[in-house]
Each structure stands twice: as structure tokens, then as C-alpha cells.
């Protein structure tokens, strides 16, 4: 067992799937399926196509898969909905969605995110390959550290998917979205084929961890609960594990090694735990039994309101292939040396967007937050100015249980994206007052490394 780690303070990870957003009084949900570094960008045809191939592990139309925790969810009275190709719990019989949301903010909740796709990239070319298809500084990422990144479209720099990339001693661990399973597979197959066609490129090995369990333990009591569940050596290491770091560990009374990553999708302190298939149900049950008064299961309904309060994106709603990292307010994932040297897909467009307007740079739209008066704004609602001209679009929105206001996320014309800008949102034919607001809507509570002076 290894419990090594390396310090790397990173921005919040939001590679997780929520819903967008709770529609009262009925629950309506949707998941969209669109699905050594080279010295210069690779040349390619003007329109690269990523053909989606299906295999036995894909979620075909009408074929809804189950995670390794399906029976456990049923035991706890889960209400299931199809999501990302899986039958996923949206809530449980013991708590309403709002109560589950508040429980997470006050104590701790356990989310099944086993529908996400877990990958491993290894071999001498893995680092350079990931540097090609993402804009992040993978080369300088310390061992046992993670970063948010995006898979980029060749010609445009559009976001194929958002992802978390973790460097382990002998490989990279990468998590992508369930709703993008087919699209991501086609993309990665295409990119790896092109990589291998260049005989000068070092070898890359790629595999998906089929049926691997993944749970997210989130909330102010998460660290205390997990510390009690780990063996003594790992429990000591956990105390100094900062946001964006990970470690291998063993849960008490088990022989299964898990990967514990400090981070999550809710804005709370927490951990995502990758578990071997044979141990997923037993370890999850053990965690629940170890903290019966503090820990409860939570579903996708609460996960969505929590992630929106935390300013986290949901792919297919707040991000898609037409949006670049700069437009999506994700410029911070583009490493300093990447800005200087490029060498990633879509770099010419993305690096131009990063420049000042006086240098021909900038973008036409930007992702921002909104506080909306009156009725909550839903996805697709138009943002307008005082004359009724459309200046933006809502991509996610819901009443916030924590803020006690209607919050939303969306895109607005560049120049109108400053916090405090007053606008209006058209909701059911009526124009409601709104104001552009900084995100996150709540203060993040990540356990970060001290800032060196």
C-alpha cells in the first residue's frame, strides 16, 4: 500500500454529472449525449470526424445499465431515473431533495458516481499525448496530484468533454462524463490512431476501468468519517491531504486498495473514492454503517443544486463542443507554458482569444452567474437588455436551498459579463429582473494547502 502524495493546489474539480436542474413540482431530468510534446500543432483536415462506435460496454438506446451499487440504492428506497446511460438514484425515501442538499452542507453525504468513465493512460508517450489533446500543464503536474482539464476539438478548440486528470507513479488516471461515453471513446480512438501513425511518437496504452466503483463523500464531516474508516497509516496521511491531491489507501477490514482523491462537485470538503468492482458495495455499506448519524446517501437531485451553488458546470448544458475554455470561464486551466508554447488542439484560436481586444483577441460571449428575481430561470431562457434584445442564454438554473434565491448560470455577451450588471431574463413570456453575479454562489470549503508567501 502506498500513501504518497504531492502538494498541488488546483481550482475546483467539476468533472461530475448532476441534473440541470430540479423542476418543481414534477422532477424532469435530461442528459445530452453529443459524446515528448510535439513542437507544433499537428496538421489535420479542415473537418475532423469522430465516428461513434458501439460495443458491449456502451449504453445503447433503451439499454440502461446499472452501477455496482444499484441493489444498495434499492435497499435504501431510491427513486431511479435514466441518466448518462445508467439507472441512477435521484433521491431516497428518507430525505427530500432539499433536505438531502442541506444534509450535505451540514453533515456529509455519499453519492454514487460509478456511472462516470474511469480511464488509465500509460507508457512513455502518455504525458505528451495528454498534453496534445488538453490545454493543461500535464508535464508539470506532480505525482499524486490532479487537475481539471478539457478534451479539445482539433480545429476549433471546442470542448469535447471536461475531465479530471491525475498523475500516478506509473500512469495517468482520467475520469470523464458518463453522458459522453460514446463520443469520448470515438474521440480517443481517433486521436490515438493519429498518434500511432507518427512513428516518432512514443507508445501510449489506454484502457477503461469497466465496472470500477466510484463514490463521492462530501460535506463538512467527510474527513472525520473517512479518517475513522481508514487503516491507521492512511488515516494519518489523510490529515495532510490537500485539495487536488490523492493517495492509495485501504479501508478497515478489507483487502481492497482504493484511490482517494480530495475534491468533488459540491463546494464542500470531500473525497472521491475509486473502488475495485468486487469491493464497491461492501466498502460503501461499511462507510454508511460507520457513521449512521452523520452520513446518508444522496442522489442526483441534490447533487445538481449543490454543484450549481458551487459554480460547477454540467457538460451538455453549460459546456459543449461549440464552447472554448476561454468562453467557458476556464482560462485558468491553460498552463502558463501552454500559453507561451501552444502545442495543443485548437491552440491558435484559444491563444488568440486570450489576447487583449486591442491585439485582436477576446471572445463574443462568457459564462457567468445570475441572481434572478421572481420565478427561477431554466435552461434555454433568454437573457435580454432593457430594450428586449437578446444578449445571452441561461444554461442551468434553480432555486438555491442555501442562498435562498433563484440562481442560474449561462452565457452573456462580452462586455456585459461584469458582476453587478443588471439584465432581464424571459421566463414563461415575462421579463424578470436579474443581475450578473460572481460564482460560486456560496463560499467554497475546500481543504487547501497553505499559500506560501
TrEMBL record:
GO terms for molecular function: aminomethyltransferase activity; transaminase activity. SUPFAM superfamilies: Aminomethyltransferase beta-barrel domain (SSF101790), Folate-binding domain (SSF103025). Its main location: mitochondrion. Residues 69-336 form the GCVT N-terminal domain. Its EC number is 2.1.2.10. Keywords: Aminotransferase, Mitochondrion, Transferase, Transit peptide. GO terms for biological process: glycine catabolic process. It catalyses: N(6)-[(R)-S(8)-aminomethyldihydrolipoyl]-L-lysyl-[protein] + (6S)-5,6,7,8-tetrahydrofolate = N(6)-[(R)-dihydrolipoyl]-L-lysyl-[protein] + (6R)-5,10-methylene-5,6,7,8-tetrahydrofolate + NH4(+). Substrate binds at residue 272. The glycine cleavage system catalyzes the degradation of glycine. This is Aminomethyltransferase. The lineage of its organism: Eukaryota, Fungi, Dikarya, Ascomycota, Pezizomycotina.
